[in-house]
Amino acid sequence: MARALINAPAKAKRGEVIEIKTLISHVMETGFRPDNTGRPIPRDIITDFICKYNGEEVFRAELFPAIAANPFLTFFTVATESGTLNFEWTGDNGFSATESVNITVE
Amino acid sequence: MTDDEGVVQRTRRRFLVETAALAGAAGMGLALDAAPAPATPASMRAAIRKVVGEAPLNKGKLKIDVPALIENGNAVPLTVSCESPMTESDHVKAIHVFTEKNPQPNVIGAQLGPRAGRASVSTRIRLADTQKIVALAQMSDGSFWSDEVEVVVTLAACLEGT
Asked: What's the predicted TM-score (pTM) here?
């Protein structure tokens, strides 16, 4: 299981724009590098990232090999109500990881 | 040195030179096989057209924030932000980033909505060469806005083995 780190405020005012930072450990092998016998190392990357706020999708990104190893993503969302932020990463070779954080909106 | 030894010396030298040449040729062949065809300005334009379609591409509104001089191309901090009120009727729908000389032109494609509050995305990218980065934003009214920056990369993201 890949290690994921989420940095999001635990508390926010209603309507406030909050910054969410995510980091997940992953090699993001591009598929363009040869191994020591000269054959290309097969691609192994995270291809999709989705963030849901109480089940509603608020951010989605399609990633390509040009994203550095251990993909880091920062984006914003409006704190509308207390609840859960769900994060989901999917990628090559059946890679899948999820993480969630709770947020209290006053 | 006797004649015999001289012959041995010569043949050994020849053997070494020939093996080195062979190994070199083999190495070259392998390197050529493994080297991916790099993206060109043309393939970047094609990738952009695929997203934009026939719509005109306007300059402005969008801003790319990236260091102008990059020491390590393996992890380059990149922020793309766009001026927008982010309301239901006027918001940024998507932000795309492309490069000119990476093996593949696409870097990231992000889908946003009015719930984002602010149209800004940051990540870390790989850059294979000194090149141009292009970002574009799709607005809710269907218009496209773009920005481009030239960056200098001193250590390229590795395409060869580590």
From this structure: 0.81
